[in-house]
Amino acid sequence: MELIVEEVSRSQKLLQRHQIKGSSISIGRGFDNDVILNDPYICANHLTLNVTEEGRWQVCDQDSVNGSFTDSQKPLKGCQPVHSGDVISIGKSHLRFIYPHQPVAPAIRLSGLEGVLNWLSSPVIVTAVLFIYISLLFGDFYLQASAEIKTSQMLKAVFSRFIGMALLPLMFSAVARLLKHDARVMTQMVVFYSFFIIFMLFDVLGTFISFNSNQLWISNGFTTVTQLGLIFALLWCSFYIAFHQDTFRRTMMAASFTLGIFLLGFLYNSASRGNFNPKPIYDNTLLAPEFAISSPVSIKAFIANSESVFDLSSKKAGEKKD
Questions:
Q1: By C-alpha distance, which of 189, 199, 178 is closest to 237?
Q2: pTM for the full model?
Q3: What is the DSSP letter of 291?
Q4: Strand 47-51 to strand 24-28: parallel, antiparallel, or no bridges (unpaired)?
Q5: Taking a C-beta distance cutoff of 8 angstroms, is the pair 179, 192 a contact?
Q6: DSSP 3-state percent helix, strand, coil across the chain (nearest 5)
Q7: How many Cα neighbours within 13 Å face the side chain of 43?
Q8: pLDDT one-digit tens code per residue, 184-224
Q9: Which residues are within 8 A (CB) of 253 and not within 5 positions of it... i.e. 6 or more apart?
Q10: DSSP assignment string, 65-100
């Protein structure tokens, strides 16, 4: 006879698997057991499993100090038949018993994204992505500075932002490791920094659109849609790297987190604006005239247009008096 004994977490997450052949299995902390558990709340010889005359497995508690409990948290008294998938709790450990003929879930098809991730994880690409990101950070910090800055100040600001952004992929890797999955730290890092570069490029594109549009909702709409799309794509890729999920569940989780981030940002912006602002909001985006799509209006033409507006206003006012 053969039986698979799985060590699982409280949430039924697989921790370790033992495949044992024979007619009896002993479980406990003692080194003479077939399955040795490192749990101080378990006796040296805590459980035994043996095959009955009918050819089925049964589990027996060996008068342990803390006892054994079934799925329904009922104490295990004496011996009890074992069905495939049953979970027995002993001490602070949980054991799941599986028969060899137990069907398994269908395999999850690998996404074409896997090849892209392997390519991104190569040392040359990682180095190139980090170099581009750091260069963009230096350029962004220099352009945003409103006064003369020292090189040491720029280095400190860029380094702080670089390290701060690294916390996000490290968090995903840490969670993956806690769930007994491959952390893939380098892959998470290069994906996050690649998306940060895309974020910065779209920010430049948004500035260009804002400079060439006199409708605030166009630039704001473009910024909001692109940011939400990039956040969703980043989370989807991070979940793909860190966890073993089907596509639907991964998509729903990424969408939920994206929606949560959007709502938090909306609430924060609403609270920051206050109830009423008497000052008009101006777009202080300054770019060279070469970035304008339409030809700029000359000063003389602007004055002439302004005078025509005043003339039209005076004419309308006269018509109303008459």
A1: 189
A2: 0.64
A3: G
A4: antiparallel
A5: no
A6: 50, 15, 35
A7: 13
A8: 889 999 999 999 999 999 988 888 888 777 777 887 888 88
A9: 235, 239, 245
A10: SS-EE-TTS-B--SEEE--TT-EEEETTEEEEEE-T
